[in-house]
Write a structure and sequence with these properties.
single chain; 350 residues; alpha+beta; BirA Bifunctional Protein, domain 2; 2 domains; seven-stranded mixed sheet; three-stranded antiparallel sheet; 11 helices
Length: 350
């Protein structure tokens, strides 16, 4: 059989196999077999140099003609197969447009917002007003004016997100995502001086720390501040105890224990008996049966002075507690990560 005859036979064979290719995968195999870099038609083109000189032009032209014809046939067949596959998919996934549409489910407030509004209501009944401070804060307000200078070891308590492009500024002028709501104390004192103060300062805080069932790297916190004449630690304990009874119920046990914060002196932490385990111990309460709900204390004289109030004349107390963690206790949520997981199965329960 001559080279021309073998070429024509290969041409007819390729066309016959092309008709039998019924899927895009089969078609891809056909293309590799005949038109690919190692395909049979490509190999025929490479034999031109081995033929007699007088036969080379005619054979070369015929190889190119067959290759062009096969490429055109391939494109036509590819379009046919894709159209057939699309029709099959449309039939399989057909939508009955005569069916009634799905009803729109009305949205509702996120559990965190519900908790915030409930807390606002309780503190309003106790004579506190809401004061909002910025999320992006100056280093001076977040640390220095709260008796936490740059060299103070207490800064290690807060793993901070710094705002890019401000690290080359002077100390105190750098900006960060606030690590707590306490910077609002300085802002409200400087704004309200020389009036007495009784405010709560809600807002989101940001810390670069590990996420667990009881801790997030961003979370809501609510600060409380009262400044007046002759305010004592007893006033603070009575205030947080009354709040706990209003929020958790009058039968909920509360305990106050000594602690340390650089912006309060003396400092305390307030715990309630863990609702999730009934005081038996669980992962949320670290198996102690008690859950911390607030850090608090008498406003440090340095902080009062930085806010514009004479500590020899004025005194005050401050407290800060989370919003998600009390909601976990009240509604039986065992993992704080659910608040920010955007899982509708969880959110629609509240």
């Amino acid at each position: 059989m001559s080279s021309f005859e073998a070429l024509e036979q290969l041409h007819h064979q390729a066309l016959a196999e092309l008709v039998d290719a019924a899927t895009t995968e089969a078609l891809k195999g056909w293309e590799d077999r005949y038109l690919g870099r190692k395909g049979q038609i490509t190999q025929q083109a490479r034999t031109v140099g081995q033929m007699p000189k007088e036969a080379r032009p005619a054979f070369g032209r015929r190889v190119n003609e067959i290759k062009t014809l096969l490429e055109q046939a391939y494109e036509t067949r590819l379009a046919e197969i894709r159209n057939a596959e699309l029709q099959t998919q449309m039939t399989r996934e057909a939508i009955d447009v005569t069916l009634p549409g799905r009803p729109m489910v009305p949205g509702h407030l996120h559990l965190t917002i519900q908790a915030l509004r409930e807390l606002y209501d309780i503190w309003a009944k106790m004579g506190f007003e809401v004061y909002e401070a910025p999320d992006v804060e100056l280093e001076a307000y977040n640390f220095d004016l709260l008796n936490i200078p740059e060299y103070h070891p207490a800064r290690d308590m807060w793993d901070t997100f710094w705002v890019k492009g401000t690290n080359d500024q002077q100390a105190g002028d750098r900006r960060l995502l606030r690590t707590h709501t306490s910077p609002g104390q300085i802002r409200v004192m400087r704004e309200r001086y020389p009036e007495p103060i009784r405010v709560i300062l809600p807002g989101k805080c940001y810390r670069y720390e590990q996420i667990t069932v009881r801790a997030e790297h961003q979370f809501y916190q609510m600060e409380g501040l009262a400044v007046g004449r002759a305010i004592t630690l007893t006033d603070l304990i009575g205030t947080v105890t009354q709040f706990s009874h209003l929020y958790y119920g009058a039968d909920r046990q509360v305990r106050v224990r000594s602690s340390y914060f650089p912006f309060t002196e003396p400092s305390v932490e307030v715990d309630t008996q863990c609702i999730l385990c009934g005081g038996e111990g669980c992962a949320v309460c670290k198996y102690t049966g008690w859950l911390e709900i607030a850090g608090a204390g008498m406003v440090h004289p340095v902080v009062l002075e930085n806010g514009g109030y004479d500590p020899d004349v004025w005194s005050g107390f401050a407290f800060g507690f989370g919003v998600e963690r009390p909601a976990m206790q009240k509604y039986g949520v065992e993992d704080i990560r659910l608040f920010y997981g955007n899982d509708l199965r969880f959110l629609r329960q509240f």
